[in-house]
Amino acid sequence: MRGRAGTAAERACAGRLPWAAVPNPYVDDRSDAVPAWIVWPVKALAFVVVLPFRLLWEGLRISGRFLLRYVLRPLAWLWEHAVVIPLAWLWRHLVVIPASWLWRYLIVVPARWLWRGIVTLGRWLAWPFVWLWGAAILPALHAVMRWVVVPVAEFLWVWLLAPVGRAIIWFVRTGWDGTTWLGVRFYRYVLRPIGVALAWLWRYTFGALFRGLAYAWRMTVTPAVRWLHTQVLRPAAQATRDMLGALGLRR
Residue 162 and residue 207: Cα distance in Å, rounded? Predict the structure, then answer.
């Protein structure tokens, strides 16, 4: 009861004090809130720095929209319909069409007629040469080919080229046959007897000597080595291991 009464008295006294009802801006009842001494500088900085830039950006954006809608687009439409389209019409009708007409009727058509005239003149000038070629030169060439070139070629082939070719073929064939015959005879009567003699000599001299040495090695050295390993080295090694084990030196 005293606690409640003291609390009520304190509340009444606080209500009578003029400064008791004024909240303290630097004190926050919430323990997890940001302190006011940090919030107020941040707000002041945002009001001084961020807000002017924001207002400037909004003003620029609104001004840009206004200029685009009421200044730039009308100017672009005026430029297209007052400058570009008239200049394009003037360029087409005063430059392109007259230049095309001049190119076609002053250059292309005269050049075509000139080419046709040159071709016709060339045909008329070439007609005598064509007639001369068909009436005189070509028959003369046929006659020369038939009565001069062909008989000379036949004569050379029959009496010179063919005999020389056959002689060359005969010499090559004879030389090949002779070389083959000599090779066979050299192998049969020289190389083969030498090979047989060398094989006989190897078989009955060096071969017999090597076989005798191998037999002697197999009958003397191999049993001695086997006896030495079985009767001496192995027992000695076994005795050494047993001795080391007895002395406790073997791991």
Answer: 61
**pTM > 0.85:** no
Q: Which two tokens stand for residue 133?
A: 């070629």
How many Å is the Cα radius of gyration of the chain?
A: 65
The model's pLDDT over 145-190, given as tens digits with 9 standing for 90+, comes to 889 888 888 888 888 888 888 888 888 888 888 888 888 888 888 8
In three-state secondary structure terms, 29 is coil
Which tokens sit at 229? 């390993």
Q: How far apart (Å, rounded) are the C-alpha atoms in residues 94 and 131? A: 54
d(CA 91, CA 85): 10
CA 193 – CA 200 distance, rounded (Å)? 10
Tokens at 207, concatenated: 């071969």
Are 68 and 76 in contact by the 8 Å Cβ rule? The answer is: no
Rounded Cα gap, residues 93 and 107, in angstroms: 20
Q: How many CB atoms lie within 10 A of CB 55?
A: 10
Cα–Cα distance list, 122 to 110, 118, 125, 127 (Å): 18, 6, 5, 8
Cα dihedral 195, 199, 201, 203, rounded to 10, equals 180
| Joined tokens for residue 198 | 């060398």
Model confidence pLDDT, tens digit, residues 111-156: 999 998 888 888 888 888 888 887 888 888 888 888 988 888 888 8
